[in-house]
Design brief:
Helix content is about 20%, strand content about 45%. It has 3 helices and 6 strands. A hairpin with a 2-residue loop joins strand 5 (about 115-120) and strand 6 (about 120-135). It is globular.
Length: about 140
């Protein structure tokens, strides 16, 4: 079974397929480059099944596009919500739903609307995704 660190590394690699996106596996002290994404652990659920143990995890992915004062930031964040294409978070995850064999299955459970978030002393445009993955 892959470690959580290995899984986050594979998720980071999948998301970095989106051109120009800088991905952090934990919350950084500062976002020095935009657009950026942060992978945040959300939930862990051990399930006991007839065939053995199945573990489900939920990870929050917050993507920061840029300053709220730029129209391009809203366009960038909206493009992340597309179901397909080079800037789609869903497509990046679906390209390898096993995250390099680290999990049995990974999928985007929900995608948040583009919103304003305060980070590092300024307001930025952000989109939020919940990713669920299963492993045995």
């Amino acid at each position: 079974m892959a470690t959580t660190t290995a899984i986050y590394t594979e998720l980071k690699s999948a998301l970095e397929a989106i051109t120009g996106l800088r991905v952090y596996e934990s919350v950084p002290s500062a976002l020095n480059q935009l657009p950026s994404a942060i992978i945040i652990p959300e939930d862990f659920n051990p399930l006991v099944t007839m065939g053995g143990n199945v573990f489900t995890y939920t990870v929050r992915i917050v993507l920061f596009a840029g300053s709220v004062s730029t129209a391009q930031a809203f366009k960038t964040a909206t493009n992340w919500l597309d179901p397909t294409g080079a800037t789609s978070v869903l497509a990046a995850v679906n390209a390898d739903a096993t995250l390099g064999g680290a999990v049995d299955c990974a999928f985007i459970r929900s995608a948040g609307i583009v919103q304003r978030e305060e980070f590092g002393g300024g307001d930025v445009v952000a989109a939020e995704f919940l990713l669920e993955y299963w492993r045995t």
